[in-house]
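To fix ideas, we close by showing one paired sequence and structure record:
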Amino acid sequence: MIPNTIIGLLVIIALSAPLSFSQPNVFEGRRIVDIRFTPQQPLDPADLAKALALKKGEVLTAAAVARSIDGLFATGRFEDIAVQAEPSGAGVVLTFVTQAAWFVGSATIQGKINAPPNRAQINAANQLTLGAPFHDEDITAAVSSIQHLLTSNGLYNAAVTPEVRRDQQTQEVQITFRIEEKKRARYEMPAISGATLLSESTIVHATGWRVPIVHWWRNVTEARTSGGVRGILGKYEKQGRLTATVNLDKLDYDSATNRVKPELSITPGPKLEVSAVETKVSKRVLKRYVPVFEERAAYEDLLVEGKRNLEDYFQSHGYYDAEVDFRVVPPTDDVEKIEYVIARGPRYKLVRRDIQGNRYFSTDVIRERLFIQPAAFNLRHGRYSEAFRRKDEETITDLYRSNGFRDVKVSTAVDRNYQGKAGDVAVTFRIDEGPQWLVNGLEIHGISQANREEIESGLTCVAGEPFADTNLAADRNYILNYYYSHGFPNATVQAAWTPSGDPNRVNVVYTIQEGDRQYVRDVLIHGLQTTRRSLVERTLRIAPGDVLSPTAELEAQQRLYNLGVFARVDTAIENPDGAEDHKYLIYSLEEANRYRMDLGLGAQVANFGTPSTTSLAAPGGTTGFSPQVSLDLQRLDFLGLGHTVTLRGGYSTLEKRFSLSYLQPRLHNIQGLDASYTLLYDHSLDVRTFASLRKEASVQISDRFSKSLTGMVRFAYREVSVSSIIIPVLLVPQFLAPVRIGMLSANIAQDRRNNRDNPSRGMYNTADVGIAGSFFGSQRNFARILLRNATYHHLTGQWILARQTRFGVIEPFSVPSDLLPTQSVPLPERFFGGGADSLRAFAYNQAGPRDIGAPLVPGGPASQPTGFPIGGNALLFNNVELRFPLFDQNIQGVLFYDVGNVFSSLSDISFRFSQRNPQDFNYMVHAPGIGLRYRTPIGPIRVDLAYTVNPPSFVGFGGTPAQLLQCNPNLPPSQLPGFCQSSPQSLGHFQFFFSIGQAF
């Protein structure tokens, strides 16, 4: 190999045309007048100065030329470098003639593509790494890979046309693959070889490549092809031929017919019977614990694994002495048998689990980490096996060692006849803690550019703290992550410790090599079509000159995803391996579909309170069926600003609701600070007494103060009105006329639940305060407060204690002279309660005050009572649930106790247990109950049965609305029709609910 210094000198001589080759050292010792690059050099000035050993005004040497060439090559930005020299007076002018390297700046897909494959699969298939070096042959490989993906999905005639654009300044290559998919091929009758033992029609049916009955061949897709092979294997598996093989040898494409003929070779193999002898074991258990079924093979290691699994299974069910062995019976009559010989032995019950010798950790801290569990409600025989015991010993050992007890020893004693009772087992973990090793002193060497205080504040191995190898490794990772996130990608850390002079004390030394710090040269953004560049730049919060932090890079990527307008956000550092300290940061974006539509269909069966025009005989409502349809249409990235316009509609027999909203997220580029503007139309019939109509316009500002704390301020201007009213006292014009409400409200929510859909720990608090007044243009004046507090406590195992309290009050003020204070608040604005999500003592919206025949006008005679709910101005609910495992991890049982009611006013809240009379509804209603929860991906399916201990009684009316109107309170009783007689009624004791999601 020729030394670089000689190469540099030869380059100078060879390219110096004006000089004779007989004077090779003519430039040695001359001053460098100028240094030029052709074409223009691409490096940042600081990186150029670092890479170039030649300086203007210095003496030229061949060694400096060679070092400069090496330094420039090390930056990674050059494919080739040559040096030309020519005299300039008494000096020399050097010209670096370079060929630039290229890097992948973006790779996008264009064209109409019907999945499969989807765009993400095509992007993955091109195998182009963002920011990595690019060569022309990469295009050929990418096109071939994409073409193969399209072909495997039946797009044999698809055309892939690459377009390459180059940016000389940034040395980026932006590649666009234009795809014309054309018609997808279909399957045709496969060619089948081998002793299949199945008919051709059975095999074809198993593939699913042909539509049943009509026998049309389906379109070719990669998933359908592989699924067809699995379908054939499944057919053989049903026959017990677990070792069958199905090979797809070829897919033969006929361009004339656009059909694909699969060629299959099949070896069915013998029937494989896996059974248990000496102990009865269900087929389901064998399939779960013997991997032969999953792997479709009978290898020795799979059989041994099945042996261990079955032993653990029986030991975990109380057969602690269970022994399992297996034998393979040679095939006879096309059947191969595998028999697991199982000796269960006696059955035991783990009744006690003790922990002894622990001083540093409490027994509760250790116990909650153990897998072995004594017998309980959901574990009849406890949970124990030798594997579990060894695992728990390792768990305790690791716990102590991570806290400085390097010499800890953990042993286990098993008493098979605890307290002389045969079958009862007690397990005792004995812990010999040994001495605790502590850090005596800590030294950190090598910090010169980073912040020493920030590094030291995050370390675990500090003076006086426990010393453990895991802590040493954790500190090393912490330091590396700190440097990595602060622009030092090449930092290294060496961790060492030595015993100090004191017993069980060590000195820890961290030696750091920081390396060079890297900075952002510029941020390159690609892929924007609709979205405004200013929005992306504000969201990134990364600017040229910032420290190149991969942590900040990924956080910016997440913020771009949070905009909700990008389907894909790729980020990378251009030329990541080059010796540059100033690097380009690339963001390649793919905008999401701007329109999104969701259609939902459903139905509800419950005890509804729909207003009736034919009968008033059931104030508590009747069981009914309500079909539901919903439609959400969203326009994302409106005006390229990341705003969202949403049209939302819902239609059912209970509610007709339509809204148009405009969401303006990230006000002033603050994440979590959003504004929304909404128009709402809502016609609800879920209250027995009336139908409500709400027309509303609102504006809302919300902010996320922290991960768990959010706040909102909202101003709503709405018109509310009621119809379908059949209670005489509500037929006066003051109640029938539409009411204009202007309300300013504020809400704050604290959510520390570990799971919003099915919480087991944490708390959830909300407070909503609002005021409506004439100063906002409101025709009614009242203040409203609604508070909620819910907590979730993990008791033991999977037992959860959940509770919730809700309190609300509406306080009217400046009441109109022609209304009573209790009548001032419009019906749709009052509190209504009862149902699966509030108070299970009542059917939906059946709690609280009811119509008792109040005067039509202040001071007038009382009207005919109907017993229909009219809502109240205060509420107090309390729910308590004990949730526990019932049959398995997916089915949960619940015991609950609900208490509360809706009250006429704040001063009427009472904790009394019973009614004073049929006109008194201001008391606490109690309802214990039981329920089931079945876990599903969309949340737990919930069934609750409540027994109302003290349901309210009231005076009702058994006639029709037309008859009710004939009961004029101004007439004497002797002149009233007979149907105007009131009848005593009451709500039922039992309430049944079926819904999705926890009650709270």
